[in-house]
Amino acid sequence: MKKTFYVVASAVLSLLLHVFVLRAADRLQVSVFQPREAEKKPRRIELNTRNLRDQVFKPRTVKQQSEVTIKELRETIKNSKKIEKVFEANNLVEKPKPKLRLADLGRNMLKPKLPTAPAPMAATAPRPKIVEIDAQGLSAERLSIKRQLHAKVARTDVSAEQLPSLLPHGPLTTGSGKTWDVGMKLGGLPGVGSLQLGGLPGQGILDRMTVEEARRRGFGSLAEAPDLPSIGTKAARGRSHQVKELDTLVSVTMTVHEERTGGGFFRIDIAPNERSERLRPIPKDILFVVDCSASISGAKLEQFKAGIDGALPYLTKRDRFNIISFKDKANKCFPDFVPVKEESIAAAQQYAKQLSRGGMTDVFAGLMPAVDVDDDATRKERPLNVFLMSDGKSTVSGSLANEELIRRIVKMNRAHVSIYSFSAGKSANLFLLDFLAYHNRGLSLHESKLADFRGELVEYISSHASLIVADLEYLAPEELRAEIFPKRLPHLYRGEALSIYGRFPPATEEIVISIVGRDASGDLEELIFRGKVAESEKASARLTLDWAAQKVFHLIGLRTLEPSPRLDQEVRELAQKYNLFVPY
């Protein structure tokens, strides 16, 4: 009986134990082993945006330009090596074929006996002197350059002291409808049209040409910028001036970035070399225009005054200068421009030292006396540079809006005065200052750190003391003309590099551009550059952004002079396409 009880009890206990174990097992969750994945870092979103001002207003010395070029080349080489490694890792590069080597025989045994190729001619090599030119084969652009040459036309040997008529005697009608009673007329030269009284084919055309005529004839820079300064103004007054070759006096380099779809972008850098010592500095007039109104803080005014004090000693003996201070009205230091002498510099420094802030601001009133000057012979021979130091904020009642002020100054600037805007600190009307400079052949420099303003002004004026070629203009083929920026070039200073940005269409093999300016003698200095696209240095995709920034800035400038919804749309599309930050 007891034995049976123990058997039943043990069976019940065993059953209860199994039930307990099964229920406990149901509550346990055994997960399948999975290898632990490495934690991924959150992806950083990088926007390749560029400030428009930084791309357009960046003056470069020759040394700075060479440093930028070297940096771009290193970046291109670095990227090309990375791509080469990827191709090698995926067996996309053909293995080099083994070279045949012969013992005891030099490599010269394997070289073909070919004639020695002539050394390539540099892009800026001197050109032969032109004695006679076939006018029938030249375009209007080439005929417009003033030269001492003879057109290749039929000639008649005249033994008598009279010239036979080439046309019947009678009135000669010009394209403008005027008639003159003359007895001869030169044969029609292509691209020149009817002659004006006292003019010859290819002389004075740029001086007399209007914007409408330039567009009709297809000139590049003249068709884009209103009221461009004339070249060879002395020649227009009846004096004969020759065209000199600038090719050997400057170093010209071209870098290109080709697109996969064809075409691409280019940058041409022009910098005077050691041979440019032949070019004498052009005498110029310097005008400091300083804002002394209450909107200028005391610390900022002290920087303005210190900048003038430090810059005056760097003016050359050939220069003249003056100072204008303004609040709601302008006040001159001297009645007119004075030569650079110790006593005049001392008087100007004393004048700047006693300037004090106060009153309302009228930027237009301060700048108007600087640009409202006659386009006389003196102004043509002596370029005028205006250095405006202001925050660009007018506070007088009824002050002009930014666009209207810019339009009035551009219209008044008949003498083609160059305006350089300098500002500092966190508060400045950069739109006004930037486009006052852009439309008047100048530059706008803004120093965010107020303490660095004096050094920035002194460094710029000291590095731009020697002006060697003034009133630069360029001519380019029609397929390149519309996409070259800037449309107006600044003066060329010794020690400074100029850059021209452009875009070329597919199948372009060569970039050709002609640049003309005026030297200290009033003669024309001409540079003709030819660069092969395939042989040029390769640039990174950053060149695309530089070109886009130049074009966007040009479009905003056009919109400032003449508002247009089409220009607004084009600016937005370009800025979005190239990730450009437009601060206006």
SS-derived structural category? alpha/beta
Percentage of residues in DSSP E strands: 15-25%
Average pLDDT figure: 76
- Unreliable segments of 5+ consecutive residues: 43-48, 100-110, 156-240
Number of helices: 18
Number of strands: 23
What is the gyration radius calculated from CA atoms? 35 Å
- What would you call the shape? extended
Helix content: 25-40%
The biggest beta sheet is recorded as: 7 strands, mixed
Distance N terminus to C terminus?
108 Å
For the structure shown, list the relevant keywords:
seven-stranded mixed β-sheet, Rossmann fold, alpha/beta, 584 residues, 18 helices, extended, 20% strand, 33% helix, five-stranded mixed β-sheet
Describe this structure in words.
- By secondary structure, the chain is α/β, with parallel strands linked by helices.
- Among the domains are: 48-76 and 205-279 and 480-584, no CATH class; 285-465, von Willebrand factor, type A domain (Rossmann fold), CATH 3.40.50.410.
- The protein has 18 helices and 23 strands.
- Strands 10, 11, 12, 13, 14, 15 and 16 form a seven-stranded mixed β-sheet that branches.
- The chain is extended.
- Residues 43-48, 100-110 and 156-240 have low confidence and may be disordered.
